[in-house]
Amino acid sequence: MCRIGIINLEKTEVLKELINEFMSPTEYVFHVLNAGFQANGTSSFDILIDADSLNIPEDMNLLHGKKDFNLTQTERTELVKRKLYSDLVKLTGYEPLWGTLTGVRPVKLAGELIEKFGEGEAYKLLRNYYLISETKSRLIMDIYNYQIQSLGKPGKNSVSVYIGIPFCPTRCLYCSFASNQVPKSEIERYLPALIHEIHEVSKLIRERDYTIESIYMGGGTPTTLDSKEMDVLLSEIRKSFDLGSTKEFTVEAGRPDTIDRDKLLVLKNHGVERISINPQTMNPKTLELIGRSHTPEDIERAFKDALHVGFESINCDLIAGLPEENLDDIKASLNWVMEMGADNITVHNLAVKRASRLNESDPEYHYKKARITAEMIDLADDILVSKGYKPYYLYRQKHMAGSGENTGYCLPGKEGLYNVRIMDEHQTILALGAGGITKYYHPEENRLVRVPNVTNYEQYIERIDEMIGRKKNAY
Fold first, then answer.
1. Which residue, 51, 169, 354, 402, has most beta carbons within 10 Å?
2. Which of 172, 333, 187 shows the shortest CA–CA distance to 254?
3. Helices and strands in the chain, H and E counts
4. CA dist 311 to 11, 207, 277, 343, 453, Å?
5. Residue 464 has pLDDT above 90, yes or no
6. Is the pTM of this model over 0.85?
7. Rounded CA gap, 217 and 23, in Å?
8. What is the mean pLDDT of residues 139-143?
9. How far, in Å, CA of 30 to CA of 138, rounded?
10. Residue 199: CB partners within 8 Å, gap ≥ 6?
């Protein structure tokens, strides 16, 4: 059992996130020690760091625009994190490709460094300060530059709108999202509350002179709604919102077992240009194992129908690291979905969330699958790039097998605008529905104000006016 002690530091949660990239929580004990602690020659700590004894590196001065300064608590944690990373590498012999980064948005970090310091200095900081590998440093810089070239920056006063449908036909083995399995009567109770929020938020948009750049309907699985319910909801969206400046309207069709020709025609007739059909894998044995109630043939049928209806872009998600899968499985799934016509493919590194059934059955799963998952991610990149797909957005999550990343690839011109905006966090996102988190962006301060809706859909229905009031009162 590895013993790790940190002296003279208040903010330590992020340090445990870093340690978890090196070893399982069952393999170490973490101690936060007070200022009076003194190690002696018989100390049993494998790693012991005193926050007050660390020198401030020159690149930290550059990064924060200071010279002789007193560190904030966040900066002190950052300094300890670098030292901890170095000690963990020496102790384990393992060197994570993402260095000290534990955050979700490395492309956002790369972009801010490029904007502030230029590409050369940004690269040095990624490599030498954040200790990110050469491959990943180049990747996130290239993705940021591609985003700017292909999509540009969000316009002044532009917003994106997220609309959440928190229902699914079944819950997948790895899922911890708001995805309730409910009778039709509960969906019928939910929709009026959501439509009420749509009406009230549309007033807020007009009052603040916002323009809607993109709309994204996610979940859960929005196509859990039947075609009549979808028609009603989309009609209300189009009546309530001015979509004259809207560049993208996406609906997650997600589960192939919820897609039929009538729903696809409803989506298309209401101006939806992009949909997602998410198999996660094309292996029928794995689909059954993870709780997906569809077959590869269902996926093929959904793609065929969507192409016939004429959507401008079809995204699909695949997951690396699923139970019992190997390199041949991810290769076969990739080749299959490309052949079916997916022009936008997101390769997810399986993240085993605490609330998922997979974590309950095997809390060590993502550590066991670390090596093979990393190999799958590399193979997927090789295959997609060789077929002309470009990586255009990227994000990370906690509890990932192999501490990797999720990367979206697209054929040129098929970039998902909302995907970029939500990860870049330089635009206001108005999130409606149970579980939605509105983020007001203040460009003059580069600051976000988070305004969450409750996740429980029953509470959302009961407290809908409170949810609307939160959005109107916060800014």
1. 402
2. 172
3. 18, 14
4. 48, 33, 12, 11, 31
5. yes
6. yes
7. 37
8. 98
9. 33
10. 236, 240
